[in-house]
Amino acid sequence: MSSVNIIEGALNAKGLKVALAVSRFNDFITSRLLDGAVDCLVRHGAEREDITIIKVPGAFELPLVCERAAQSGKYSGIVALGAVIRGSTPHFDYVCAECSKGIAQVSLKHGVPVGFGVLTCDSLEQAVERAGSKAGNKGVEAAMAMLETVRVLEQL
Prior knowledge:
Layout: E1 18-23, H1 27-43, E2 51-56, H2 62-72, E3 77-85, H3 91-110, E4 114-121, H4 124-130, E5 131-133, E6 136-137, H5 138-155
Parallel strand pairs: 1-2, 1-3, 3-4
Antiparallel strand pairs: 5-6
């Protein structure tokens, strides 16, 4: 059997410029996601001065800001961080759908990896669990996914 070529990304942030777009809404959750993402990037070789934090009002605004960051050509990758918690109206469904769709479009349109660290939770307890408690920190996971994707794209 002949050998196969495997392209795989490394968790190496050395030399990368990264934008972290973070929602201020539900800041008690998103600040923990942000801390996790920054820590992850620095632990994997990023310089703090190469990380730009962009604060936006809420998750609905994340796609536009990610679009502008990708369009600028300044960043190797972007991480979108937010927390949308279900309430008693359909607002949750609209915000989650448009946010995820918009962020995915940014990646595809500009070829810039965008880590998706937007929590879409049914309760505050679920959000706390995903922001550094029982279920880990989804900000870390989004930063790692972005890093690996940047390094995969470099090889394609």
